Each structure stands twice: as structure tokens, then as C-alpha cells.
Sequence to fold (317 residues):
Amino acid sequence: MMRILPAILLTASVFAIQPAYAQDDKTKKADEGEDLLEMLDEENGKKGKEYTTATFKTSRVVNGHSIENTAAGVLDFKVNHRFGELKGGASTFFGLDNANTLIGFDYGITDWLMIGISRSTYQKEFLGFTKVKLLRQTDNKGGMPLSVSYYGAMSAQAMPAPTLPAGAEYHFSNRLFYVNQLLIARKFNKWLSVQVMPTHIHYNLVPTTAEPNDVIALGVGGRLKLSNRVSLNAEYYYRFNELNGYFNSLSLGLDIETGGHVFQLMLTNANAMTERAFIGQTTSDWADGGIHFGFNISRVFTIVKPKEFKSSNTNKW
Fold:
């Protein structure tokens, strides 16, 4: 069963953000160079309340989730790749011979609720998640100083069942993993955004008795805007559990927005793309040259056209 991380609430007074709000003609705005998150996150703003927008360029910082949601009625199609270690050299074409792939779909049910599904080649993992906005940063003087969202996920790996001793059974529940996470972010100005991610991961089954079923971690991520279409992102997850053979996940990324697409290019020591794997089970070490090149591609489609509205929020990316 999913277990909510008790310590998660201790960091709930730190930073914040709020996603961008879509306007009526999304395609035209994208062609004119408006921010993609104008298409990803919209809100029928309440009179007198100006929500902070576009803290991050898309719904991922690098590997992990950002505070951003897709807008109501919008489908976000994602294709992610992580290649092998660069230190493999020419024999592996610097890691390009080996790749893990994730294909996923995120959908905005409402302006505060987002769901998603994906399938990853890493351990043939299927994942479903939900992300819920709890608090929203506002630009009003004396308003909410940060944004908070809850992210919850359950995944199942579809690898062949291991060989067990006679009489032992391998249950479907042994394949399951659970993630509970708070996303706490603040957009300090148009150039800088910071997010912290207290995280709890539960593994129903672990490879050895030396590994815990529950992993506690704290992530820190940030975005530095370089131009209207380019930003530099960074992300680090510190595990409080000491696990031999596993390393903390560190990733550096570059976001490039081109109309309805966002390309995220990155260097990371994680070759997996689901939280239970890249936070709790990263086996490559930056210090030893265990660096993977990867990328995320995001393309949004309007499935249900929102009702026309006038928004008082005029913030741009």
C-alpha cells in the first residue's frame, strides 16, 4: 500500500511557482513565440488575484516533475531517451548504441488536476500518476509566496519472474512500486525559479535483505532563464538511505522551446526515467565518468477546447 512520507510536510514552507495560463488562440500564440506553457497551463483567474506563471518551461525539471501541469483538455505527448555512459567511447558510439526509451501521455483533467501514463524500456515498466495543485504562488503583494503540488505514482515492472526456491511464489504485487512526492517551488523573478521535492518511495520487493523497502529522498531543482526560448536547468536528489552500489541522481539540462515543442537536452548519471528508478536505484557515478546523454521531447495537443475567458494575468515566460 502507498505510504505518505511523514517528513514530507517539514519542507512545505520553502519556495513556489505557478504554471502559465493558456489564452484563446493557442496555435497562433505558439507561432508568435509565446511561451509553450501558455498552452500547458491555464486558469480562469479570480478577479484581483494574479497567479505567477511559467516557473518552469514544461512539466519536468530534468528527470523529475516540475510544479507545472498541462492545461484542462490538453494532451502532452512525451518521448524520452537516455543513452549509455559516455565513457564507453567509440566502441559504444559514446553511449548511443545503448538507450532506454520512455513514451508517455500527460492529460489535464482540470486546471488543478493532471494524470499521466507511460511505458519505459527500463525493466519494461508501466507507470500511472496523478499531480494535484495544492497552493499557488501569486504576484499580489501579501499573497501566496509559493506553490505546492502533490505527485503520486504507482508502477509495475514486467520483467520475467525470477527463479525462486521450491515452494516459493512470485506474486504480481512483488512487481509494484509507489512514489509520494511534494513539489514546492518559488519563482523569484523572471530569470530564476527553485523547487524542492521531498520524496518517499516504497518497493514491495527488493533484491536483497540489505536494501530497504522504503527510501526517503530530498530533491532540489532550479531553472535559470537564458533567453525567451532557452533555459538552463539542474536537479539533484539526495537519498537519506545509505545503499551500496547506488548513487544520488544529478542532472543538468537545457530547455529549448520551438512553438508547440519543448526539447530538453541533458547530462545525467541516471539512465532510468521513473522516480522509483532514477532516485532510488541509479548505478552510475559522475565522479567515475558515469554520465549519460539524454533528451525529452514534449508536444501538446488541445483535445477539449476551453471556454473563452479574459485573464488578468499578463505574465510571460
